[in-house]
Amino acid sequence: MPIKWVDELPLAEKKIFCRVDFNVPLDGEQRVSDDTRIRAALPTIRYLLAQGARPICASHLGRPKGKVVPELRMEPVGVRLAELLGGDHRVLVTEEVVGDGVRKIIDEMREGDVVLLENLRFCPGETKNEEGFVKELAALADGYVNDAFGTAHRAHASTVGIASHLSIKGGGFLIKKELEFLGRLLGEVDRPYAALLGGAKVSDKIGVLENLISRVDLLMIGGAMANTFLKAVGGSVGASKVEDEDGLAAARRIVDRARSKGIELLLPVDVVAAGEIDATVTTVVAASEVPADLMALDIGPKTRALYADKLAGAKTIFWNGPMGVFEKEPFAQGTLAVARAVAESGAISVVGGGDSVSAVMKSGYAGSISHISTGGGASMEFVEGKTLPGLAALEG
Ligand code: ADP
Ligand code: MG
Question: Is the CB–ligand 1 distance for residue 287 below 6 Å?
């Protein structure tokens, strides 16, 4: 059965276990320092409230590894959620994940209240998808909504186990939006279809490269990954970060595949190089002739112009992986230039990947990009063509 969405479920007066991704960063004073993920879940939570449901939100936070870690309690997340919900919604944060105390709080919920369970990963049964824990979670609610796209690639109690115990189940609006945009990348697309891949390693992204190479018209490579490609085709990459023989072989396979399928594969023609990552003095050199004492740390101006030109002509764009060490100002220009070109292209554009998303946010062009995926690992696995267990569990 296809996934039902939250707006197709009977919700009035039902207790709905709503798996969200509230795995947000906290600052030294235990305050939420980036609430993007909380905001992303608001449409679903607001909808549940508007339909008269009683939302029981639950998430993990950090990696407590099955034990109570006081610094990873959900309390600060609940405070921020209440601020964002506004009005007179109360957010009741439980001190335990499951049990009688939690059930009592849920039974006493008033209309408009939201319950936020304590950090799911305080319980070892969560990541083990352990049956006893699954049953305890399921016993708290009448129905299940999953809106945690960022953990959909994990088969945990709250993302997979619980779904088979509750017949009212479906996906939230965030997951719906993610599938709509990421799904497009693997289906019928407006062409030309361009993929821009960068970041750290070919070996991290080989699944994405292999799945996209048969679908795209144009593949552009940047970042440290480009060094492996350049070396694989016979270039000199100097002291650049470059992969071992497995990475080189993977790069060679992609080059061959592109050639045999007639897909345009672009590698950097010039790079911004320096002797070390903290350098302030940089030089632009030909991408295949990096001197032995220098490292390629960003794509160069000719490559920026070339990639921007190609992106301007694309109708569908997928981008993962920064073009350079964007965290350091001298090596941020390449990533900034492609962010701008993606934004100005007018194409359907999708950006995925943890570092890529933070680079786009920093660039100021986020507002002009069609979809910025909230799921780092989950969006990569989706684009690789893998089945995400959290989505499969909603289908059955
Ligand atoms: P994402 O999280 O978006 O999937 P990755 O984790 O693959 O992206 O890659 C991001 C990292 O790659 C960044 O920390 C960036 O500094 C690094 N990087 C990009 N280009 C280079 C380069 N030329 N040399 C070394 N590191 C690079
Ligand atoms: Mg990363």
Answer: no
